[in-house]
Amino acid sequence: MNRIHRCLAVLAVPGGALLSLAVAAPAAFAAPATFPPPDPAPGPESVTRAIAAAGMPGWQITLIAAGAAVAAAIAAVLADRAWTARRSGTRGPARPARRNVTAQAD
Fold first, then answer.
1. Cα separation, 99 vs 96, whole angstroms
2. Model pTM greater than 0.85?
3. Contacts of 91 (CB under 8 A, 6+ apart)
4. Torsion angle, CA of 38/41/44/46, rounded to 10 degrees?
5. First-to-last CA distance in the chain?
6. Is the Cβ–Cβ distance between 92 and 85 less than 8 Å?
7. What percent of the residues of the chain are helix, what percent strand, and what percent coil, each to the nearest 5?
8. Is the separation of the CB atoms in 91 and 85 below 8 Å?
9. Which residue in 82, 79, 104 sits closest to 95, CA to CA?
10. What tens digit of pLDDT does each residue of 66-85 get?
11. Angstrom distance (rounded) from CA 90 to CA 82
12. How confident is the model at residue 44 (pLDDT cuts 50, 70, 90)?
């Protein structure tokens, strides 16, 4: 059964990569839209003031970075606990340890 899971994992990785490339390809090869030049007729000028030019505010970047750091720390702690439990042979409360019991004929 382990071999089947490994084979499926080996096939799933290139399949996922091809799927992501197929989804991203139309956006990557898109051409910018061309618009006709503006009308040269004179008219009243209006002043437009931009409050935010572009980009993401710094507080949002900080919040995203902090959230990613917390998620990475939680994943690292869980992985370390699972690795330690696997090495020491202990099991959690949901999975009791298997005892060495021999089958007896009744």
1. 9
2. no
3. 85, 97
4. 10
5. 33
6. yes
7. 55, 0, 45
8. yes
9. 82
10. 999 999 999 999 999 988 88
11. 10
12. low
